[in-house]
């Protein structure tokens, strides 16, 4: 009798809609599946930084004087981790969102009964998975072929973790904001890739910091890539390699300040510039 009486009440009870976080995690699962099913995107994101690292580290492999026995190869490996992280978080994300906007995907998602924040949670989850995967690939190559030494202390791993998370957050937010710059999907790749390529050269990725002209290095210092690379060099290289930096120090405090500032700037840019529709749609 109790079951019979409680059945109508159970049927009449309103169904609670999934929350923003739950929908965001579900959206993230979809994003990850779509990414790994697109083989060209997987190859570009994972293979390109690794291939560039192998090319530079193989061609330039001499030991650097007065740097604690550090080789040019190890210098490239540490810096390319930062470039690979920015490729997956800034470059690929900005291009991908610009393409989704041009194809009308964003407009359709906006019309669905899903909180807008869930879409961005899904993108963040995608970036986190691809960023960790990219870093693991580069570390495996660096340790296996170029004698990169993994940190031997918990403090070094802590430094790696916060540089990774702050850099990933800053580049992800900036990538979302930058997705509104291209006018359409066809122009997305060149518009995003050109400044990113220039930034890599003036941030100490392909050229040692102590050989970059001071004016160009000063420009690179305004952006997160230079500080991410410097932070990772501090994690994976011996302290004697500080002599290769512009300030002859790892400057962890300044790294945290710059990356933290870019997290704030990136968030403000996202809130003020992100568009769900193309310019031709108004």
From TrEMBL:
Classification via InterPro entries: ABC2_TM, ABC2_TM_bact-type, ABC_2_transport, Nod_factor_ABC_transporter
Location comes to: Cell membrane; Membrane
**Does the UniProt entry include the keyword Transmembrane?**
yes
- Write out the entry's keywords from A to Z: Antibiotic resistance, Cell membrane, Membrane, Transmembrane, Transmembrane helix, Transport
* Ranges annotated as spanning the membrane: 42-60, 75-98, 119-148, 160-179, 191-209, 252-274
- GO MF terms on file? ABC-type transporter activity
Q: Alphabetically, which GO biological process terms does the record hold?
A: response to antibiotic
Name all ABC transmembrane type-2 domain ranges.
Answer: 40-277
**Principal place of residence:** membrane
This protein's membrane topology, according to the annotation, is:
Multi-pass membrane protein
A Gene Ontology cellular component where this protein is annotated is:
ATP-binding cassette (ABC) transporter complex
- Answer yes or no on keyword Transmembrane helix: yes
- Pfam families assigned: ABC2_membrane
**What family, per the record?**
Belongs to the ABC-2 integral membrane protein family.
Q: By what name is this protein known?
A: Transport permease protein
Organism of provenance: Mangrovactinospora gilvigrisea
